[in-house]
Amino acid sequence: MGFFSEVSWQSTGTDVPTTPHCGLCGLSKKCFSPRMPPTGLGKRKVLFVSEAPGVEEDRQGSHLIGESGQLLRKILDSLDVDLDDCWRTSAVICHPPNNEIDEKYIKACRPNLIKTIRDLDPMVIIPLGESPVQSLIQPLWKKDMGPISRWVGWTIPSGKAWICPTYHPSYLLKMDEDEQLVSITRKHLKKALSMEFEIPPVCSLSHLQQKVEVILTDQAARARLRDLLTKCGLLAFDYETTGLKPENPEQRIVSCSFCLNGEDTWAFPVTERTTPLLSRVLLSPNLVKIASNLKFEERWTRAKMGHGVVNWDWDTMQAAHVLDNRRQVTSVKFQSFVLLGIGDYNSHVEKYLQSESANGLNRITDLDIRDVLLYNGLDSLLEYRVAQRQKKMMGWR
After folding, report:
1. For residues 48 and 309, what is the distance between their CA atoms, to the nearest angstrom?
2. Three-state DSSP class for 162?
3. Is 383 left (phi over 0), alpha (psi -120 to 50) or beta?
4. CA-to-CA distance for 161 and 158, rounded, in angstroms?
5. For the segment 126-167, what is each residue's pLDDT rounded down to a tens digit?
6. Sign of the CA dihedral 93, 98, 100, 102?
7. Which pLDDT score, from 0 to 100, does residue 9 have?
8. Per the confidence metrics, is the pTM higher than 0.90?
């Protein structure tokens, strides 16, 4: 299963229609080549997705043959790749007036793009610019997409294919073919094309959810904590709390989750009866700790237990910044998506985690504790997996 199977779209909880809304869009009545089919020989299992046909594409009924397409060919030629050996399509397959792409066009045409991907079954999908990125990624990410610069250069596993966004060549032309920008785009394309014969890792949200053990009673949690104290290895852990800052006496740690060596993931409510054993686990030198933004867990541990965490090993947020210093890419949610292909898993709890001020209380206690613990456990499991990918990317031994 990949991003584009019906099951995967449905599993995100996102309403993604599979029937095109060409009648509502109306563009097909205003262009020379309506509903332009994919073009290219497909000798390589690579699909380029442009934004929409321009004037020249509309006249000739073929994608990426105008000035932007010629620049793309020039860049690909420098990589010994013939664009005609790849497939080409667009996020919107009818030429929009004045090349202005409204969001409603993208939404109406998304089913056409999904069908094209299902029919062609590419190994690499290269979205060029904002419109195809929005069409492919928005239903899975759900949150604010931010600028295209946030997404370019990633190789996102999507079940059977890699999603590898980069800049649209029209943007390079607009920037007078800035040498540095062209070089960056060439680097993105080279990396994307190198993924053609690499099978993406198989990882689904439903599979990960089944790996999280939800522990509801103090007795069971205490038994697990005692057992954990006899173990050693890499331990990713995560707190869910009533707010951001722990100094307010009313603030408390609601739950904690652990993922030991990537194989044993569980979450439990933090109470007066579980805290002493939890404290011992965090002080254990045999357990090497992993977190995302570890200063959060460190600060809460110090405030509520009177000591810090012993034997920190990895912070996925700091590592993400070292690997790529762009803005809005360091959260474990974003890293889980671009490195592991795990889309939205927190939108159903996000509103309960918001508070009116940094010192204020959120509404996490209004959630069913089972939902809190499952979400908490997924955080630890994904922190562990993201950390392992980051270490590999850094050549960490």
Report:
1. 48
2. strand
3. alpha
4. 5
5. 999 999 999 999 988 988 899 999 999 999 998 899 999 999
6. negative
7. 38
8. yes
- Strands of 264-269's sheet, edge to edge? 212-214, 264-269, 253-260, 233-241, 287-291, 312-315
Q: What is the pLDDT of residues 63-94, one digit of tens each?
A: 999 999 999 999 999 999 999 999 999 999 99
Q: Which residues contact 51 (CB under 8 A, 6 or more apart)?
A: 90, 91, 92, 101, 128, 129, 130, 131, 132, 168, 170
Coil, strand or helix at 90 = strand
Amino acid making up residue 41: L
- Which pLDDT tens digit goes with each residue over 42-54? 999 999 999 999 9
* CATH class name, domain 6-193: alpha beta
CATH 3.30.420.10, the chain: domain bounds: 205-394
Domain 205-394, CATH among 3.40.250.10, 3.40.50.300, 3.30.450.20, 3.30.420.10 = 3.30.420.10
Task: Name the 3-class secondary structure at 214.
Answer: strand
Cβ contacts of residue 171 below 8 Å, gap of 6+?
129, 181
In angstroms, the Cα distances linking 357 to 64, 362, 397 are 49, 9, 41
**Within a 13 Å sphere around the CA of 229, how many CA atoms are in the beta-carbon half?**
14
Amino acid at 342: I
Q: What's the longest Cα–Cα distance across the chain?
A: 73
